[in-house]
UniProtKB/TrEMBL annotation:
Biased composition (Low complexity): 48-64
Upper lineage: Bacteria, Bacillati, Actinomycetota, Actinomycetes, Actinopolysporales
DUF4232 domain location: 112-244
Residues covered by region (Disordered): 34-128, 197-217
Record-linked Pfam families: DUF4232
UniProt KW Signal keyword: yes
Bias type Polar residues, positions: 102-112
Signal peptide bounds: 1-27
Protein name per the record: DUF4232 domain-containing protein
Composition-biased stretches (Basic and acidic residues): 65-81
Annotated source species: Actinopolyspora biskrensis
Length: 245
């Protein structure tokens, strides 16, 4: 019976020992790391690090892009401002160019004054008691001047005293502005009659023959004298004249 107890004890000891070894092995297996898990974790960490690095690089690239965009925007704003300034300057120049053009237009030419004019009377073709002459004025000055209108006339005797003179203005052609450059001329036509009329002095067919004529240019008050060698002027010194042309 004792051996039977010994065998039973030995079995229990063996069983207990087996249990302890199994626990130890299991404990050891629990403490030992899984190589596959370690590799997977390392790869994950590596991927995470790589992803973080890529994200960081992308962020830096985005930052540079934004910075470049900001720089481009600033350059665009500066360029727009410069174009605006240039446009304003151009408009100012254009406006200044338009003012210069107006200022650069040919200035209004002054009237031809008596002091710069020289005159002459040229006999025209007579006919049926009618007489004609061409009164010519020449610009003796150094600059261009203008004539507009009709001459003033007064017949003079030998002593320079005025004779009866009746000047009428012929509307055909009418007056127009005539520009006279230095040494250029303009003329007006004179017409009178040598046929006596009821206005002539009693016993005399016509007025005494003038020896001169006083000429006053248009819009002037001063006059100059020309010789008159065209005979009598009947009808109380009636002369019709055209405008200068």
């Amino acid at each position: 019976m004792v051996p039977h107890r010994r065998n039973g004890l030995g079995f229990r000891v063996f069983a207990a020992t087996t249990t302890l070894l199994t626990g130890a092995l299991l404990a050891g297996c629990g403490q030992q790391a899984d190589p596959a898990n370690e590799l997977s974790g390392s790869a994950g960490e590596a991927m995470g690090t790589s992803g973080d690095s890529a994200a960081g690089a992308t962020g830096a690239s985005t930052s540079r892009t934004r910075t470049d965009d900001s720089a481009d925007g600033a350059r665009t704003d500066r360029s727009s401002a410069e174009r605006s300034t240039a446009s304003s300057t151009s408009e100012g120049r254009e406006s200044t160019g338009r003012t210069s053009t107006n200022a650069g237009q040919r200035p209004s030419t002054s009237r031809c004054h008596t002091g710069v004019l020289d005159g002459a009377l040229k006999r025209g073709s007579p006919g049926a008691g009618q007489r004609y002459a061409e009164l010519t004025l020449r610009n003796t000055g150094d600059s261009t001047c203008t004539l507009y209108g009709y001459p003033g006339l007064e017949l003079l005797d030998e002593s320079g005293a005025p004779l009866p003179t009746d000047v009428s203005r012929n509307a055909a052609p009418g007056p127009s502005t005539v520009r006279l450059a230095p040494d250029e001329t303009s003329s007006a036509r004179l017409h009178w009659s040598v046929v006596p009329s009821g206005t002539d002095p009693s016993g005399n067919p016509c007025e005494p023959a003038p020896s001169g004529v006083s000429v006053t240019p248009p819009d002037e008050t001063d006059s100059f004298r020309l010789d008159w060698n065209h005979g009598r002027v009947c009808g109380g010194g009636a002369i019709d004249v055209t405008a200068f042309r």
